[in-house]
Design a protein that fits this description.
The complex is a heterotrimer of chains A (about 450), B (about 180) and C (about 400). Chain A has about 450 residues and is an all-alpha fold. Chain A contains 17 helices and two strands. A two-stranded antiparallel ribbon of chain A has the order 1-2. In chain A, helix 10 packs antiparallel against helix 12 and helix 10 runs antiparallel to helix 17. Chain B has four helices and seven strands. Chain B is globular. Chain C has about 400 residues and is of the alpha+beta class. Chain C is globular. Chain C starts with about 35 loop residues before the first helix and ends with a helix. Classes of the chains: A mainly alpha (about 450), B alpha/beta (about 180), C alpha+beta (about 400). Chains in contact: A-C, B-C. Chains B and C meet through strand 3, strand 4 and helix 3 of B and helix 1, helix 2, helix 9, strand 6 and strand 7 of C.
């Protein structure tokens, strides 16, 4: 016994962890296998009977997970795009073109000390970032990314979106109040005033659209915009689109409306006293919000997943060109691939080396100064690009949801870029200008938009 | 040198001048007693013949024997800088009336002179230390305030001219470097 | 018995203060010394103090401003100085005349040449030294370059304080070029230590001239392009217009000088009001504006940059040959006397008052810095405005804390 204790005492901390965790895992896995063998059928039956719940849980998990790469991508875009606008290089150390820097930032905030200042209301202080982040993530649930690719299709989807989006301000206010710091308090109150003021034009600007659409389900709204580009609501609600975009900028605390964290005025606003992962949550929430607001703009006004042009006529046109090029019939391979059996795998495995050699050959043969391994690397990269492109083109043509997702992400990130562009260009407005703009300009304009739409619907409808 | 300014100053302030009007290069200098500061400076500022609208500087000076307050003025009416020196302030309790009613901007300049020399500007409503902390006791630019300079106190101190301080190494306490006011 | 002399640390549990509510108030822990202090540190109904600085993103150095707020509206404010006080005047009184010049550079670290210039002028008056004309031309040339770089920085930081990220980096392109070319003749990028009693430290060299030629050929366009980022930006203009308005009479009485005074409509520029060096021979205008608000101060700096480019151009064309240093002995013992010299710097009047007692060290060395007086006017410009306006006014007055705190 003493020998075991002595051996245990000599172990380092990682060693102790490994020696504890590995046996535990082995036991647990074995238990799990046994459990599945005994109860597996019953569990599957129960899950199959409640497919809606399974789908919801799955969707919620996926959404929670995908917000992280989205936020990372937004942070990287912000750093790199603003750097280019400032004639700087921006991040270029971690990963190719600094792409891994935001991941490293994430790890950094994870490892930093989580500090609660003296005098802070520690419960509220701790929960504030959670509320903000949860509110941001929960809105993703109703976003239709592509046909069939959405968390949940509510008939009150838009209402749910605004309700959850409005919850984020509670977190900011909690953080601002609980920090026991006057900068935080000012930031929290500013965010409350700003977001509540801009909530009104934001909501009113889409009421006109709702009159036209006749539904609040985001999926239905997107489906209504399928067809040609002229069906997009931006052409029927241009004023509403502009108001919505401006109000969304304010709602997401983005420049020129980033008064809540105006660094040259109130240091970091509500986040002044936050450090470590709590601070990270606030900023994850902000960048997720940027994506969500861009996505909602796309869904409501820019056709969501619908492509701005039809791909089929182009394919037909290409197919029409083929006879002219001497290709008359679809290429048929006089070989029954299925009949090959196992050798098919070898054939498939041969494609990459052969492709690499094929693409490398012209470089190696035409340039005498080229080393063979350089040519091989170039060939490999080119092959990957071409093969990836082909696979993508096949997926795009074959699957609706791939095409939809691509178009949706392209449009959404175009708006993210627009937000970043504004941040690189514009100074910040003052709080009285901000509030005056909301109440004196945006609100009347939104009402005007609503009334004009209503009149038009009544006149044309009757 | 603006000779006309000299005669104008002598004509106007002949009775309050505490010394001859001196001129050198582009500077004209008059000396007055501290009590005359508000009247003279107000007259220089208000009277169109002088029109010294701009207070270019306000400096305290410790001559080692007395204190001075030196005002530099600028006017369109003359190509010279005008230097008004309030001389013979008591070194133990230097007091001079404030010029804040004429130039509100002199408030901080007077605070600085108070902070550095302990000159009390009577009538300045905000005469507190400006650079030094509130619990600081001495007045650093006075001539009996020595720098705690290691090089100067070292055995080689004073050998090279750059290291000589105003208090020689073997000087008795209270040695003060002096200048003829 | 040992006494624990360690500084109390925030990690020390004994430092949990007894009265927590007072921990965060910037109220001084002693009885008020003046009426003004007593009045300021008494809170009215619904007012709060907020302590901006000494480490704050928008304070341009280590300035601390205690603000009394009602909501977001500034009721009153009290700048607290001294965080950067180094006692340069005392140091200069303990240094050789030549040595003092090096002490002056770090005062206004973005326009160092204008700190050296009045000092060498004052010494030259004391010593009756005649400066060679080529040296005067070089002083004007380098000085105007420094003014351009300083103004560009001020304009960039003005935008940065208002939340615009980009203009500062465009400003730095030009500033960096100027600083590099000055470094090629002075050997330093910021703290040049270039002017000497009786001239300048070195003649113009090939690298400087070629860099200057390159830069001058594109300077006007570049400056116009940088300024175009902001001048037509509606948000920038609206945040500056009618903020921090100072009328001419008050500005004079507050002892303002430089661009800030000229933006209020007073055409006071020492280069014309009290000509020194070779400025009488050079043709340039003194831009003024009547509005006196932050926007006017910003636009006036833009105009001044253009005038400075004109001056640089003329200097290059009129530059005479000759020595760049007068014959001045190493050890200088001026006769007892006094002298005052002032120059027009990018922020206003930089002055030096020297009293000599006949030794090789100045007896009294007084440094006059314009930012000090501009900062003083916060209390007049800001009450009734919002916190965000403080940043606007602060950026448009363009104070440099190194000079203010001496």
């Amino acid at each position: 016994m003493t020998a075991v204790a002595r051996a245990w005492g000599r172990l380092t901390l990682p060693g102790k962890v490994v020696f504890t965790v590995v046996p535990l895992l082995v036991v647990l896995t074995a238990g799990l296998i046994v459990a599945i063998a005994i109860f597996g059928g019953a569990v599957v039956d129960i899950l199959a009977a409640n497919m809606e719940i399974v789908r919801f849980v799955g969707a919620a998990t996926i959404i929670l997970v995908i917000t992280i790469p989205i936020a990372f991508l937004n942070i990287f875009l912000e750093m790199k795009v603003i750097a280019f606008m400032n004639l700087r290089i921006g991040p270029d150390r971690v990963g190719p073109w600094g792409t891994a820097l935001s991941v490293v930032h994430g790890l950094k905030v994870l490892m930093k000390e989580d500090f609660t200042p003296t005098g802070a209301d520690s419960v509220v202080f701790t929960w504030a970032p959670v509320v903000t982040y949860a509110a941001a993530v929960m809105t993703v649930l109703v976003l239709p990314f592509a046909p069939g690719l959405y968390g949940q299709d509510f008939n009150i989807g838009l209402l749910y979106f605004f309700a959850m989006g409005g919850l984020g301000v509670v977190g900011l206010l909690m953080g601002g109040w609980a920090s026991y710091n006057k900068y935080s308090l000012l930031g929290g109150l500013r965010s409350a005033a700003q977001i509540i003021s801009y909530e009104i034009p934001l909501t009113l600007s889409v009421v006109g659209l709702l009159i036209l659409a006749g539904t609040m389900s985001l999926n239905t709204i997107v489906e209504q915009q399928s067809g040609s580009i002229a069906d997009w609501y931006v052409f029927r609600q241009p004023l509403g689109f502009i108001i919505f975009f401006i109000a969304a900028t304010a709602e997401g605390n983005r420049t020129p409306f980033d008064l809540t964290e105006a660094d040259s005025e109130i240091v970091a606003g509500f986040a002044t006293e936050y450090s470590g992962m709590r601070f990270g949550f606030f900023f994850f929430a902000e960048y997720v919000n940027v994506f969500i607001l861009s996505a909602l703009t796309v869904v409501l006004f820019l056709g969501g997943w619908n492509a701005p042009f039809e791909i089929d006529p182009i394919l037909d046109w290409i197919a029409g060109l083929l006879p002219g090029l001497g290709i008359t019939t679809p290429v048929t391979i006089p070989l029954d691939l299925g009949g090959l059996g196992l050798p098919l795998l070898f054939l498939i495995a041969l494609i990459p080396p052969i492709g690499t050699l094929l693409f490398a050959a012209p470089f190696y043969l035409l340039r005498s100064s080229m080393r063979w391994w350089v040519a091989l690397i170039i060939g490999f990269l080119l092959f990957n690009v071409v093969a990836g492109g082909l696979v993508f083109a096949w997926a795009y043509v074959s699957f609706d949801w791939v095409a939809g997702l691509v178009w949706f992400l392209v449009k959404a990130f175009a708006f993210v870029f627009l937000f970043v562009w504004m941040r690189g260009t514009l100074p910040r407005v003052r709080i009285d200008q901000l509030m005056g703009f909301a109440w004196k300009w945006l609100l009347p304009a939104a009402l005007l938009n609503l009334f004009v739409t209503a009149f038009a619907v009544v006149l044309i409808g009757s | 040198m603006d000779r006309a300014l000299k005669s104008r100053l002598e004509d106007r302030f002949g009775d309050v001048l505490a010394g001859p009007v001196r001129q050198r290069h582009d500077e004209t200098e008059i000396r007055i007693e501290p009590g005359d500061v508000p009247d003279v400076l107000r007259a220089l500022h208000d009277e169109p013949a002088f029109g010294f609208g701009l207070l270019a500087d306000l400096a305290g000076v410790d001559t080692g024997e007395t204190m001075q307050v030196v005002y530099h003025l600028w006017s369109e009416t003359t190509p010279d800088w005008l230097r008004v020196m309030a001389i013979n302030l008591d070194r133990e309790s230097p007091r001079v009336p404030t010029v804040v009613p004429v130039w509100p901007g002199a408030e901080w300049l007077e605070r600085e002179a108070y902070d550095m020399f302990g000159i009390v500007f009577e009538g300045n409503r905000d005469l507190r230390r400006i650079f030094m902390p509130a619990d600081y006791r001495s007045f650093p630019l006075r001539k009996d305030f020595y720098l705690p300079d290691d090089a100067a106190r070292s055995p080689g101190g004073g050998v090279r001219p750059m290291e000589a301080t105003h208090a020689p190494r073997n000087a008795a306490a209270g040695t003060v470097r002096k200048v003829r006011g | 018995m040992t006494v624990d002399h360690r500084h109390p640390s925030a990690d020390d549990p004994r430092v949990m203060l007894e009265d927590e509510s007072e921990l965060y108030e910037p109220i001084p822990p002693y009885a008020p010394r003046t009426e003004r202090e007593a009045e300021f540190y008494t809170l009215g109904d619904g007012e709060l103090f907020i302590n901006i600085g000494p480490h704050h993103p928008a304070t341009h150095g280590v300035m601390r401003v205690v603000m009394k707020l009602s909501g977001e509206t500034i009721v009153d404010l009290d700048p607290v100085l001294g965080y950067l006080h180094r006692g340069v005047e005392k140091l200069c009184e303990n240094a050789d005349l030549h040595h003092t010049i090096a002490y002056l550079d770090p005062l206004e670290y973005v326009s160092s040449l204008f700190c050296e210039w009045p000092a060498v002028m004052a010494y030259e008056k004391l010593l009756d030294v005649e400066v060679p004309r080529r040296a005067e031309y070089i002083r004007v040339l380098t000085g105007e370059l420094n003014r351009v770089s300083s103004h560009l920085l001020a304009m960039g930081f003005h935008a940065l304080d208002l939340g615009g990220l980009t203009p500062i980096l465009y400003s730095f392109i030009e500033r960096d070029e100027i600083v590099e070319m000055l470094a090629s003749i002075t050997g330093q990028r910021m703290l040049f230590n270039y002017f000497r009693i009786g001239g300048v430290n070195g003649d113009l060299n090939h690298e400087f001239m070629s860099r200057l030629g390159d830069w001058m050929s594109r300077a006007t366009e570049q400056v116009e392009a940088n300024v175009g980022l902001l001048n037509e930006n509606e948000i920038f203009v609206r945040r500056n217009r009618d903020i921090g308005v100072m009328d001419a009479e008050t500005a004079l009485r507050m002892c303002w000088t430089g661009p800030n005074l000229r933006a209020s409509g007073v055409p006071y520029d020492i280069r014309r009001a009290h000509p020194y060096s070779i400025y009488p021979e050079i043709d340039f205008d003194i831009p003024t504006r009547q509005e006196g608000d932050s926007l006017a101060r910003y636009l006036l700096r833009v105009d001044e940059v253009k005038q400075s480019l004109r001056i640089i151009d003329q200097c290059l064309h009129q530059m005479p040959d000759g020595p760049v240093m007068a014959k001045v002995p190493r050890l200088l013992r001026p006769r007892p006397g006094r002298s005052w010299a002032a120059v027009e710097g990018p922020r206003g009047e930089y002055g030096v008052y020297v009293v000599s007692d006949g030794t090789d060290q100045p007896f009294r060395f007084r440094i006059h810095d314009p930012s000090f007086l501009h900062l003083q006017s916060f209390g007049r410009l800001l009450p009734g405005k919002l916190i965000a306006d403080w940043m606007t006014v602060n950026a448009s007055l363009d104070p440099i804390m190194g000079g203010i705190d001496k």
